[in-house]
Write a structure and sequence with these properties.
alpha/beta; 6 strands; Molybdenum Cofactor Biosythetic Enzyme, Chain A; 167 residues
């Protein structure tokens, strides 16, 4: 069973001025997918604070999901904080999330979400709105178990069992 942590990045949420809906929704999806949630929290949109939290939690969970701070506002620094600390990028994850989002709204192209690996932990940035965070996670959730296995060094083949390569 894999473990996960969820961090919401929101100035207003961290000050108690806005209720966080995306973090609990993401945690529920992960629980329903079989993940044990080890940690949740809300932090301000501050690059140093975010980077420190990512470093602190990496290596303690298999999956670390952030919500918020992926847009174009000057305080949206989650992708930069993530890129500052990860060892390797996993660009396909946010690419799939943006592509899935584009089927619902053209604004999905404005997401600057990133994904990567730090200390054996897969880190994924999700948007801050509940709807966008849920849709983004649902677009990739079925592949995350395999991604985590590979991150941990599994030598299992990447071809899925339901895929047929008969061409």
């Amino acid at each position: 069973m894999s473990t996960a942590a969820v961090i919401t990045l929101s100035d207003k949420g961290s000050q108690g001025l806005r209720e966080d809906e995306s973090g609990p929704a993401v945690a529920d999806i992960l629980k329903n997918a079989g993940y044990t949630i080890k940690s949740t929290g809300i932090l301000p949109d501050d690059m140093d604070t975010i980077s420190k939290a990512l470093v602190q939690l990496s290596g303690t969970v298999d999956l670390l999901v952030t919500t918020g701070g992926t847009g174009l506002s000057p305080r949206d620094v989650t992708p930069e904080a993530t890129l500052n600390v990860i060892e390797r990028r996993v660009p396909g994850i946010p690419e799939v999330m943006r592509a899935a989002g584009m089927t619902k709204t053209p604004r999905a192209m404005l997401s600057r979400a990133e994904a990567g690996i730090l200390n054996g932990t897969l880190i994924i940035n999700l948007p801050g709105s509940r709807k966008a965070a849920v849709e983004g996670l649902e677009a990739v959730i079925d592949t995350l178990g395999h991604a985590i296995d590979k991150t941990k060094g599994s030598d299992k083949d990447c071809a899925s069992e339901d895929r047929q390569d008969n061409e």
